Every structure is written in C-alpha cells, then in structure tokens.
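Predict structure. Chain length: 390.
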Amino acid sequence: MTASSPPIAGDCDPAFAALRVAFRENLDARGEVGAGVCVVVGGRVVADLWGGHQDEGRSRPWRRDTLVDAYSVGKGITAMLALQLVSEGALDLDAPVVSLWPEFASEGKQRTTLRMFLSHQAGLPAVREPLRDDAWQHWEVMTHALAGQRPFWEPGKAHGYHVNTYGFLVGELVRRVTGQRFGAALRERLCAPLSADYHVGLPESELARVAPVLGHTAQPISEAGIAAFVQPGEDAERNLMLRHTYFNPPGLSGIGSVNTRAWRLAEIPSANGHGTARGVAALYAGVLAGRAGIASPVLEEALRVQSDGPDRVLERPSRFGLGFQLHSERRPIGHGARGFGHYGHGGSLGFADPDAELAFGYVTNLPGPRWRAPRTQALVDAVYASLGET
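Prediction complete.
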C-alpha cells in the first residue's frame, strides 16, 4: 500500500489474506473506484471489506453502509422470494400463470408458467409497443403491456435472457399472492429476517447512502450508440426484440437513469436492487443455511438445469436454473460445479457454492467489461485459493 492508495476498511480472517490483497490490487491496479466484498463460509463471515471512494473525484470514502445498484444480481434475489412462495404452496412452478394473472391469457400465452418465467423461456424479453419514457417508473404500465402482448417465441420452446422484464413477470406473481408491492414483500419476507441490507425501491430515508454508478453506462445513449449495441441485421423481428429489450422504454436498463432519484425509488427487480456486499452475501448464506424459507426439494429443483445453450437475446450460450445462473465453463459461478447465483452488469456478483458452504457478495460503482470481469474474477480466485489453505 502506498500513501496515495485508496482506503480499505473492514475485517478479514488471516486465512483469507489473499482476498484482501486482491481487493487492494483491484483498487490500485485494476481501475476499481469503490466497492465492497463479503464472504461467508460455513455460516461464519470470514471477510467483510469495503474500500475506495463513492465518487469519481475520490472525495467521499466508501463506507460500511454504502449502497450501490447491483443490477442483475437482483435476478437471483428475486428468485429466492419466488422460491420461498413456492415452498409455502402459494406459487406453483408448473401451473399456468393465468390462474393468478387472468389478463395474461392472450396471444398464445395461456400455458405459460412460473417455471418459464424463472428460466427465461417465456418469450417476453421485451415490450413490443413503444412505451412512454417514464413507463419503467410505473409497475402497472409495464405488467399490463407484458400481459397483453404476443411473445417473441412460443413459451417453453426456447430461451432468451429477459434482461429487464424478468423482474416484472416474476414480481407480478409475487404481488398477486402476497397482496404487497414487490419491494415490501422482499423486505418483509426475505431481507429483514436475514438482516440483509438490500432493497428494491429504496425508501427516501436511504437515498443519502447511495454511491452513484460511474462510467459510460450512467450516461444517456445516442441513437448511434443504440445501433452499435444492437447491431441490427435483416431480421426485423430480431432487431425489434433486441432494441426493445434494452431501450423500451428509454432508461429501462439504467442507461442515463441509474443515478436519478426516480430510478432509486422505482421497483425494477431485474435491474435496480441497491445493496451492500454484506447484504448480498447474507441472502445467499441464508439460502444455504435453510433460513430463507426455501424447502430443500424446491432448492434442488432450482439448481437443476432448466435452460442451456443458444440464447435468443444474448446471442451466445447461457445456462439457467430457476432464476439463478448456473456454473459453466463459459461463465463460471465460483469454482464449484454446483455454484449458483447471478452476475450484475459490469461485474457485481452474488453466489453460493453448496459444496464449499460458501456465500459471496461483491458490489462496485464502476462497472467493468460487459462479459469479462477481471476484478470480480480476481476476488473469486483469491477466495478459493484461501479455501484450499484453510
């Protein structure tokens, strides 16, 4: 550590000193601005570190309770809540969702199930009709549009990453069986019992704790930028699907909206969950310990491969269980073959490894490369190297 090195705070078991070293190297040499990492092994917190700064000017240190948007880490956490309700018998993985959501019975979607929602097989990665700019702020607008539209493929016959719609689809079923808005149900049924500092739809009282997301993804995107991202071809249906997956309505993915008050207060379970690394790790540790209300047979089913192979949205192979990304060589979830969890845009990650009794959380305010996350991988590698020495 040099005199100009960003500050690091927190605790780390000496057996996991390699993790502290990797965290320091992320800040000193891999471009990290501010972040937190937390590791729980066998129910014991072995590392809880935070460091760097909340702002680009490096004037506000990252604190123990600093919150940041963890993006798609929220998909795995959304799955936890749905699986808890499945365990209670309030939701059924294979019953048609129209039994709870009658408005969904249109355009060939009558047999769509929660299993299809959780495994990205529903054919609804995007809303077809252009939506008003602020539609992402209004739950009922988003769910009404999804319920009434024609899917992009026959539900259950293929899979494609439901980047932003996943949370509205799964979350609407949560809302209908609990009678609560998604954020309230998540807080009362999952996060509060596990003392997990993670929120979808931040209370006003928590806004002062949020670190802004830095880098180009926090800025509005131009029409040229959208075209470069989507890379339109001759297939008009594909072009529409990809463009609307990310940019209908504008701001849905957080691009240009992620640091606004409206974004932080909204409920977008797939993309705008704000938390600490400790909060994310606590949720996965709770699942492993059987304290998240998910019955063992339900969890085992969730960790069974549901979708694997070509992804119609990502246009590369992907692998999902029920709401969780599953470990694969092309995108590892930890080092264990039974790892499950979810990456967030640019490297944030929450996962569990049942064989190692390991839960892991990492959040950052500077997203890295979209598919390769060197900072994340350095931390994960350090954890497993430490496990081998304990």
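Summary: The chain has a mean pLDDT of 96.
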